[in-house]
Amino acid sequence: MRIATWNINGVRAREGALKQFLKEYQPDILCLQEIKTVDEGFPVAEVEGMGYNVATHGQKSWNGVAILSKMPADEITRGLPGDDSDEQARLIEGVFSVEGGAIRVCNIYLPNGNPVDSEKFPYKLAWMERLIAFVEERLTYEEPFILLGDFNLIPAPIDAHDPQAWWGDALFRPESLEKFRALANLGLTDALRATTDEAAYTFWDFQAGAWRRNAGIRIDHLMLSPQAADRLENVTVHKDVRGWDKPSDHVPVEGEFTF
């Protein structure tokens, strides 16, 4: 089974690229972030016509997440618990039946947090605290659990073309990294780092020729419970997608599993 994540940066603007990716790569499950539309604005009929089930957690103009899957979900959860006042659409989770049981796929769009001297950075850290509590509870199920999406987090210097240029940014500073380590220390495996120790980027800014210079960063991740990590076979960063017509600034990252 192939499970992918992609910050599409506006599903309406990238609908052509979305259809191309589904047609060419045929992931079993594709998790999207930053769909930037309410649920009613998602091209459901078009995607269903390509053989996918669609579950969305949308928001007007900002954020928004979706799960596209070849098989129907047994259950869908929308929103991160822990703060009833938080209306930002940043988490959607699906449970899917597989041979021998079920897998749980949790798609997140973690807050960016910039600028750090605004309310956005404390919101990011608080959101991560809530996420840690959520994941800790999920791991008690002792089932394959895949936490994936745009984490807006650079885990280590190798994950940035120019780490010094990023140091101090909300994506790469001590407070953010401390929360990320706490999340990983619950028992999650970074899927890409389980398969390679080489640099691989998933985001290139639209500015300053970042794509041409390969001045990228890795902020899109698949984090796996022990039960999911045991079934991991390979991870692919679909870098070619960044060169397509009207691309997102992120590329899909796909894990292949023996589910």
TrEMBL record:
Site entry: Transition state stabilizer: 152
Q: Which UniProt keywords apply?
A: Hydrolase, Magnesium, Manganese, Metal-binding
- What SUPFAM superfamilies would the database entry show? DNase I-like (SSF56219)
Site note Important for catalytic activity applies to 220
- Write out the residues that bind Mg(2+): 7, 34, 150, 152, 249-250
Q: Kindly indicate whether the keyword Ribonucleoprotein belongs to this entry.
A: no
* CDD domains attached to this UniProt entry: ExoIII-like_AP-endo (cd09086)
Tagged with keyword Endoplasmic reticulum? no
Q: Which residues form the active site?
A: 109, 150, 250
Q: Which GO terms describe its biological process?
A: DNA repair
Q: Which residues carry the site feature described as Interaction with DNA substrate?
A: 250
Q: Where is the Endonuclease/exonuclease/phosphatase domain?
A: 4-250
Task: State its Enzyme Commission number(s).
Answer: 3.1.11.2
Q: Which GO terms describe its molecular function?
A: DNA binding; double-stranded DNA 3'-5' DNA exonuclease activity; endonuclease activity; metal ion binding
Per UniProt, the cofactor note for this protein states: Probably binds two magnesium or manganese ions per subunit.
* Uppermost EC category: hydrolase
Fetch the Pfam families from UniProt: Exo_endo_phos
Entry's family note: Belongs to the DNA repair enzymes AP/ExoA family.
Q: What name is this protein filed under?
A: Exodeoxyribonuclease III
Q: Gene encoding this chain?
A: xth
